[in-house]
Amino acid sequence: HLAMSLPLPSEGDHLRPRIDLIVFMIDLKSKYSLKNVEASLAYVDASFFLGKVCFLVTGVGRVNCCSIEMNAIWKLGEDYVSPVLFCELELEGVRVATAQRLLRMLQICAGRVPGVSALSFGSLMRNYSDE
């Protein structure tokens, strides 16, 4: 299910399936995209930030066209203890690999992978390069 922003409309709440993973998409070419994600984060229950939220950043192949500072993206990941994935949607191979990665994350978050919880998965995704 896709939503342009949060909160989700209240009509249809009883029909809405359980939410196992929230992927916030940020287009590096649009400052509005980052502002929309930042505004939507206030509507996410704090328990979701324990392994059930990630940020998918698109437009990484065109760094010279960026409207968003990369530090702002990294700060979101750090502040919300959530992984940041980068993808160039225009490249089919990268798009397919990213979709597969997101599907695997969803399987873990939904409890479909024995022995791996969303909480432990989140810690595996963290960037330890600055330690």
UniProtKB/TrEMBL annotation:
Chief place where the protein resides: nucleus
Gene Ontology CC: one annotated term: chromosome, centromeric region
Domain of life: Eukaryota
This protein's record includes keyword Transmembrane helix: no
Keywords annotated in UniProt: Centromere, Chromosome, Nucleus
Gene3D superfamilies recorded: P-loop containing nucleotide triphosphate hydrolases
Record's subcellular location: Chromosome, Centromere; Nucleus
This protein's record includes keyword Flavoprotein: no
Entry-linked Pfam families: CENP-M
Descriptive protein name: Centromere protein M
Organism: Urocolius indicus (Red-faced mousebird)
